[in-house]
Amino acid sequence: MRSSGDLGLHSLDDAERAAAAALPPEVRDFVAGGSGRETTLDANRAAFDALFVVPRVLRDVSGCTTATTLLGRPAALPVAAAPVAYQRLVHPEGELAAVRAAAAAGVPFTASTLSSVPLDALTAVGGTVWFQLYWLRDERRTVELVRRAEDTGCAALMLTVDVPWMARRLRDVRNGFALPDGVRAAEVDTGGAAHHRAAGASSVAAHTGQAFSSGLTWASVERLRALTRLPLVLKGVLAPEDARRAAEFGVDALVVSNHGGRQLDGAVPSIDALPAVADAAGPACEVLLDSGVRSGTDVLRALALGASGVLVGRPLVWGLAAAGEDGVRRVLDLLGGELRDALGLAGCHDPSDARGLRTVSRQQPHRPAPERGLSNASA
């Protein structure tokens, strides 16, 4: 296998094209697709592309760095790998290759409840691993997953709150998508439901309908907060009212996310929801951004609107499909280089400085993000 610097990948879009050539069409659709008419999937990118940064000049950026902290731990970039299920669909090593690449890049890796590699194998790599939790119908099993995350050394617990059930994803329905026999959730018994192919139906959706609870409430968050001392993150928050309430419940961080356009079709683009959520969360609750990030400039945009970092999902899967661990490393290398370029050209010494930048959209101007305890560059 070629080195990560010799893969012919010069942008995250290149990784997507390489993955499309390598994957079976139905697997490509499973990863790439959104829900319904894919309105929100498309809107995520359109919202980023409509957002412009007002750079500052005459600042010393000779020591420009992408280093920061995420959930209280050092990170080489304000980037974490988003939770993505069943990564062995796209490469035999699956999540194990991806977590090695994330550890080498110095960024956190978020292991999905539906990871196709056991959690202890991922944390054994030695990087920072967060565990993403779906609330299961069997609450005892949910508690067991929390304890497993603690016992295996996960650094944070990320509860996904926008999936009472899986939305109708038409690409999977049309493909009659089902998991191949060799790919299973390592931490949750999928039984046969996720592997039973049926015309005009998604077997993965059928399984999650059986396994996931649609009764997740703020009382569940309260129980989870009392159950663990790990930093608690809620993923899937778009409304400032929910952000405010999360902070009241002692949640440590939020992920502003519409699930990459895979849940409510027509939901607001995450980047558009970010400023109000960051304002409502207050300084004690960290805010991350997920859905649609495809470049270092996108990371800069998110930082300018109040995020402390972003989660990146599909691009890392494309890198994994294209070239395994080397492909994921290359995607993270590209993001890091693009972000350093964007920071320096915008007059920022480090990611915290980006909070002082003004942004303008085709719809309306945005004021600089609230300081949230971080220092801005001098004017």
Account of the 3D structure:
The protein is α/β, with parallel strands linked by helices and 379 residues long. The protein has one domain (4-360): Alpha-Beta Barrel (TIM Barrel). Helices cover 39% and strands 13% of the residues. An 8-stranded parallel sheet has the order 4-11-10-9-8-7-6-5. Helix 5 links the parallel strand 5 (109-111) and strand 6. The active site is at residue 259. Its EC number is 1.1.2.3. FMN binds at residues 83-85, 112, 160, 235, 257, 290-294, 313-314.
Features:
379 residues, disordered C terminus, TIM Barrel, alpha/beta, 3-stranded antiparallel β-sheet, 13 helices
Shape descriptor reads globular
Helix and strand composition category: alpha/beta
Order of helices and strands: HHHEEEEHEHEHEHHHEHEHEHEHEE
CATH architecture: Alpha-Beta Barrel
Helix content: 25-40%
Number of domains: 1
Strand content: 5-15%
Strand order of the largest sheet: 4-11-10-9-8-7-6-5
What is the total tally of β strands? 13
Termini separation (Å)?
48 Å
The biggest sheet amounts to: 8 strands, parallel
Q: Write down the CATH topology.
A: TIM Barrel
CATH superfamily: Aldolase class I
